[in-house]
Design a protein that fits this description.
This protein has 333 residues and is an alpha/beta fold. The chain has helices spanning 34-47, 62-70, 100-114, 133-145, 159-168, 189-196, 235-255, 259-274, 287-295, 303-312, 325-328; strands at residues 5-8, 13-16, 20-21, 51-53, 79-84, 86-89, 92-96, 119-124, 149-155, 171-177, 199-203.
């Protein structure tokens, strides 16, 4: 199968209906394997999964460089999204920085690592409280005018800052965590996106793996794995969340598909009710999981299945914060 495309925003950005989150190819979920990651990227292109998501801070820097090597001779087949917005010192993220001068420096460095002359979608990774969104949008708008960037996006921005940025330069997409087990966007943010004509790109659409059904307790993951510190994988939270996610598994069993495919199909359908184009970017570095994720695009859930999932994983039924206290402090809500 070849994936259909969806439109993000009102400025003409067309992307594959499911994208590929590339962060895990370089960090967070076990050891890196460049050969397997490159093979997965090439298979994604064959399947039409051509919306690739990276960031300077992934690694740091190594994920963009990986894409640059993997996409040699294939750049015109993909849509590359990357992000700015962190201060990185001695190989570690130490704070946020969205000063216009810094944005320009990051873009030049990202272009070099990605081995390209333009970035298709450039996100501000996290809101910088010290820099007005008008200044951020203005700086990105200048890069668009120069041809170095095609479209502007935000990540984990709140309603007020989305409005402020969009008033200066059109925002094509908001990237934020959204899935069956993280629905904080529904009361305010998603309706605003529909009003302004902005697309939604959910990261962690499989609940950082939880919705695949192939999960373990936090302490059972290897040192360095992100999930060791995820509050929802710990203690009583883990037990409660396994119970909540059982409905995903039950529907998957009845349909003869994988639980993760049900979670992605729910997301792809959910946007219709809000009038918002939703393009999830499940992350993987393995061809097997990539193929499973892409196949979810052909799975259609009926109204009863959607309602059952909505109820079983309603916000009050998920236990624990989605980030540590430090991580939550960077979310603009």
């Amino acid at each position: 199968m070849t994936l259909d495309t969806r439109k993000l925003g009102s400025q003409g950005l067309q992307v594959s209906a499911i994208g590929l989150g590339c962060m895990g190819m370089s960090q967070s979920y076990g050891p890196a394997d460049e050969a397997e990651s490159v093979a997965t990227l090439h298979r994604a292109i064959e399947l039409g999964c051509t919306f690739l998501d990276t960031a300077e801070v992934y690694g740091p820097y190594t994920n963009e460089a990986l894409l640059g090597r993997a996409l040699k001779g294939k750049r015109d087949k993909v849509t590359i999204a990357t992000k700015f917005g962190f201060r990185i010192e001695n190989g570690k993220q130490v704070g946020v920085d969205s000063r216009p001068g810094h944005i320009r420096e990051v873009v030049e460095a990202s272009l070099g690592r990605l081995a390209t002359n333009h970035i298709d979608l450039l996100y501000q990774h996290r809101v910088d409280p010290a820099v007005p969104l008008e200044d951020v949008a203005g700086a990105v708008g200048e890069l668009v005018a120069q041809g170095k960037v095609r479209f502007f996006g935000l990540s984990e921005a709140g309603a007020a800052n989305i409005r402020r940025a969009h008033a200066v330069h059109p925002v094509s997409a908001l990237q934020s965590e959204y899935s069956l087990w993280e629905r904080n966007l529904e009361p305010e943010i998603i309706p605003l996106l529909g009003q302004l004509g902005i697309g939604l790109v959910p990261f962690s659409p499989l609940g950082r793996g939880f919705l695949t059904g192939e999960v373990k307790r936090a302490e059972d993951y290897a040192e360095g794995d992100y999930r060791r510190n995820d509050p929802r994988y710990q203690g009583e939270n883990y037990d409660a969340n396994v119970d909540a996610a059982a409905k995903v598994r039950d529907i998957a069993t009845a349909r003869g598909v994988k639980p993760g495919q049900i979670a992605l199909a729910w997301l792809l359908e959910k946007g219709n009710g809000f009038g918002v184009d939703i393009v999830p970017i499940p992350g993987t570095k393995r061809i097997r999981y990539l193929e499973e994720n892409v196949a979810a695009a052909s799975l259609k859930l009926d109204a009863a299945e959607m309602a059952a999932l909505d109820d079983a994983l309603a916000p009050g039924k998920i236990s624990g914060p989605r980030y540590t206290e430090r991580g939550m402090a960077m979310v603009d809500r």
